[in-house]
Every structure is written in structure tokens, then in C-alpha cells.
Amino acid sequence: MYKTIGILAHVDAGKTTLSEQILFRCGTIRNAGRVDRGDTVLDHDATERRRGITIYTDLASFSYGGNTYYLLDTPGHIDFFAEMERTLRVLDAAVVVVSCVEGVQAHTEMIWALLRYYGIPTFFFLNKTDRAGADVGRTMEQIRGLFSADAVLLDGGLEDAAEELASLDDVLLDRFFTSGFDAALWRERTAQMASSRRCFICGSGCALSGDGVDRFLSLLDAFTVTRYDVCGDPAAVVFKVRHDADGTRVSFLKLLSGTLRVKDMLNGEKIHEIRAYCGKRFTPVQSAEAGQVCAVTGLFAEVGSVFGAAPSFPKPRMTPLLTAAVEFDASVPMQNVLQIFRTLEAEDPQIGVNVLDSVGQIQVSVMGPIQLEVLAEQCDVRFGLPIRFGDPQILYLETIDAPVYGCGHFEPLRHYAEAHLLLRPLPRGSGVRFSSACSTDELRLNWQRLIETHVYEKKHRGALCGFPLTDVEVVLLTGRAHEKHTEGGDFRQAVYRAVRQALFHAESVILEPFYRFFVRVPSDCIGRVLSDLETMSASYDAPQTVLSETTVSGRCPASEMMHYKQELTAFTKGRGVLRLEFDGYDRCHNADDVIRSHPYAREADVDNTADSVFCSHGAGYTVRWDQAPDMMHCTVDQKLLASFLTK
């Protein structure tokens, strides 16, 4: 049986140390590495070892109880939570490491929220029981109070917890009062409860010394159940991409069904090599089957790509909220820098590289300042390019408030394309979508599909501040091509200009990211917290007090709460807990201030022009965006247009 487990934790809870102990005790490695010595198998990157934190998800395998396990050691720092989230879709079970000294921390709560969102069976390892101040009982109370009352500590075995487990299952409860404890039945029913998240198995110990690790492994093995169909058609999901020193693209994937062999075709591409990884080292293998995690070369799929009958996955929750400009020496060609960041973007899609040709600038989207530091180190170490970043700023977006029509024409000599589009607002979080209301009698299907491609391939800039456009449906109303002179790039120009022309007429709206926040403080501090929340334009529910602590939750602009953790820690003397979750984009609470601080001359942005190009007497000429509609060659069905505008 193949089982994939992820080790997740708050920074310094002992996640990598536990991973090393597991690999050592199961014979994968000869010695258990230590983070403080910088000799771990999994945190092998030079930046990880220097900083003492996990930055990249790493893979190793081990055997236990006749089963093969794939262990994914994930980042614990908030700036790299997106990397951690990408691994969740391939897990059969998650192991959350909690320190019995510090207890449940804010990031632990964020991990739990993600595991609940993805529906992943979860185990807890209560670590550092040898340390002064460690309290297993207190930590279990926190887990039950904050996460689930169905968390069960099984350090003493099934029989010691028989009554507690029976209270969670009607079959066990009936058997408990009629014939008593039956080990086989309890094991079977507990495994079923764990796999369906009706029960959360906990074990305790010390990862550094190895105390309790063997006992925990036996629990993990007994109560994690998987079933994969090796006979079906190949199906897989890509959860990680990296590049070797020679530039070879390596895609890490999990086979969900079927068998994949070297030279097989996947998504129309030939698999050149299949690799079994342990840290940075790998062994070439000839095949992989359902349930196995491997890496392949020859596949140019993006992170998150699925193949075959793989299930659909929820939309990622972790989203970059900051953007920063890349600063580099003027002697370095911008195209060279862009190529490097495209490589980094392939490994971490949420970097979101954005190019502003008009000002010769490259921007990236990031989770936080530590990620910027790591990106700068990677550019220097891997590519020999010293760079800096400008001060990170909130990543604002733009949308529209009402449907709006736009048209674009591109007709320099021997080129021709015209597109008429309607832009209409979508619910928050929808992104950019495309649909067609154009008959194939007016425009052939191949041209319509090309227009769709051009809508999606570009990060369209809003006309108010130039922020990326989102939450908009682009509807193709009509268009025209020339039998001889139209090429693919012509419709690209026509579509870009039509979108832009529509935005020049639109009622634009600035959107900003919001946090869902959870604050827990000593009750005598809640007055200060509520005052701060009012100042930060937050909305919140009535505070709830339990014993000596008060909790308040709500929603707040990210720009207002970005640095509040340090302030909260200071005035609560370290006793306050703040957990933040991205809660989508919404109308900006201080839009006028943002517009003033981000001046944007929309007509001067020649890389995003709204003007059209027409042809006369063998030469192309430009027509201003507000005059171009009178010169268009197509006629839009006014009833169709009116039906969209009035929806």
C-alpha cells in the first residue's frame, strides 16, 4: 500500500527534526540530521540551512509495516505557506507537529484551517515533551478547544482509549457496553473515523531524541488507509516544479491511477525520465504506479496541472498580497532578468511576474519580505545575478462596476483583425473569464478560440491606476478577419485594444485584499484591541470570553493589519495571538488615497493602448480610442448589446 504524508508545523515546532527521525528509524538515512547543525537530508538548500527554516517542500520515501510511504516536509514560515498549500492536494494524511512548550500557535491554526478546507485526514504529534515547561495535557486541551473535540491521545494504546473512541462511533459504543473491547474492531473503526476526519489521532514524544517516534509511526500506519487503481488509465497531479543546474525542468507529481513508464506520452509530451527522490538525490526508475510520488523530465506542465481522471481541487487559499519592483544593474538586459524570473515563476506560480515595458520594470507578487530576501539570494546563487527589490506594496486590483462595450481594430498594411467585446462585472474572486455570443457565421470558430487565448494570456491593466484587472467576464459580440491578411497576432492586437477601450469607458473600482482575523488576548486587553479595530476600519463580531481570555474575529483591510502582530505582541507582553487568513478582495476602504498615491496616465501607457489602427492608401494610421467606434467595419447587434448592458 502506498501512502503519502505531509509534515506540517509552525516554525521551530520540530517538523524537519521529526521527518529526519522517521527516515532514520525506517532505514532511509544512516543518521538523523539536525537543523542546528545544518546536515539534514530534507533542508538541503544552502539558503534553508543558513536560515534554519524550510523554504521548499522536499520529498523522501521510507518503508514501514509493509507499506511504502512518501514523506513531504513542507515550509512552516508564513511567507512560504503557498508552497506548503500546493502539497496538500497529494496527501493521504497530514501530520501536524505542535510543541508542548509553546502550544498551538497562530500559524498552527492557519494550517488546521487549510487541512479542513481540503478535507485531509490529520494526525497530531505533540513534540518537545522533554523540555522544561512542556505540558501534554494543556496542549491536548488547546487542540480540542481550538480544532476538534474529537482529538484522541493514543500514547497508551487503543484499549486505554477504548471508551473515548467508543463515544465517537455508534458501532463501538454498542459493542463497548455489550461485549467490551475488541482490538480488531476498534482498529478498523478508528481507521475509518480517522480517514473521514471524524477522529484525530494524537501521539506525543521528542523528535530530537526519538522518544515516542516509533509509537507514533505505528499509529500512523494503523490508521491511514489508501486505495489506488493501478489498472486504470494514468491520472496525475503536478505539485512542484524545479530546475536542475543544467536547466532541465523537473516536474514532481503523484500518480492517482494507472501506471506511467519512461517514453510514455502524458498530455501529448514524452516522459524522458522518471526519478525517485530522497532530498536532493534521486534514482532513475523505469515506471511509477498509482499511489506513488515521483518526478519526471520531458513534461512542461505547470504546478497544479492535472492529467486524466484526476479530481478537481479547491481554489488555493494562500494568495500573495504584496508586490515589489525588481531593481538590477542597467547594464543587464531586461530580457535576461525576465527570463530568470520566468524560471522562478514556473517553480512558484504565485510569484506572479508582471512586466511594465513602458517604464522598463519587472514586478513580482510575494507573501512577505522574507520571501523577497530568499528570491534575491536565489537570483545571486543560482543565476549569478545580483538584484534588489523596491519596498513591497499592497497588491491592489481593479474591476468594473457595470457592463461596458469596447471595440478594437488592427489593420496596418497586410494585416487585419477587428473585435467587439463586452466587459461585465463578476462576483469577487472570479478572476477574468471569457464567453462568446458570436455566431460562427460571423467569425469562424478557430478565430474565436484564438480571441479567447488572447483574453487569458495577458494581465490586463485597469484604466484607473493600472492595477491588474479581475472579476470581469469578456464576452465576444462579433469580429472580423480577412481571408488572406489575418494572422494570429492581429487578433491579439485587436483584443487588447478592445479590452482597453472598454475600460476607458468603464466605471472602474479599486479592490484591496482583506484578512479574516482571529485575535485572542487576556481579557484586560480587549478594550485596546477593539479600539484598534475601529481605527483600522475592521468589522467584527461580538467578543467571546472564556475564563481569562477573550476572542474576537472579523474582517479587516490587509493594508491596515499587515504589521499589527508586532503591536499586539508588545502591548499584551507576548500573550496575544493573532491569526490572519486571506479573505478575498473587496472595495478599497480608502480608494481616494490609493488613487492619489498611484498616479497613472492611462493614455501615456503605450504598451496598453486603447487606440485602433486602420489602413488607407496602403499605409496604416492610428485613430484615437474615442473616435475609433465610428470607423469600425463590423456592426454589433444592438438588441444583443442592450440585453447585456441591462443585465
Total count of domains: 5
Query: What class do helices, strands and sheet pairing give?
Result: alpha+beta
List low-pLDDT spans: none
Strands ordered across the widest β-sheet: 2-3-1-4-5-7-6
Rg of Cα set: 28 Å
Structural features, described:
About 30% of the residues lie in helices and about 30% in strands. The chain is α+β, with helices and mostly antiparallel strands and about 650 residues long. It has five domains: about 1-225, P-loop containing nucleotide triphosphate hydrolases (Rossmann fold), CATH 3.40.50; about 235-305, Translation factors (Elongation Factor Tu (Ef-tu), domain 3, Beta Barrel); about 320-395, Alpha-Beta Plaits; about 400-505 and about 610-645, Ribosomal Protein S5, domain 2; about 515-585, Alpha-Beta Plaits. It has a seven-stranded mixed beta sheet with strand order 2-3-1-4-5-7-6, with helices on both faces. A six-stranded antiparallel beta sheet has the order 14-13-16-9-8-17. Strands 23, 28, 29, 30, 31 and 32 form a six-stranded antiparallel beta sheet that branches. Helix 12 (about 445-455) links the parallel strand 26 and strand 27. Helix 12 (about 445-455) packs across helix 13 (about 490-505). The two termini are about 55 Å apart.
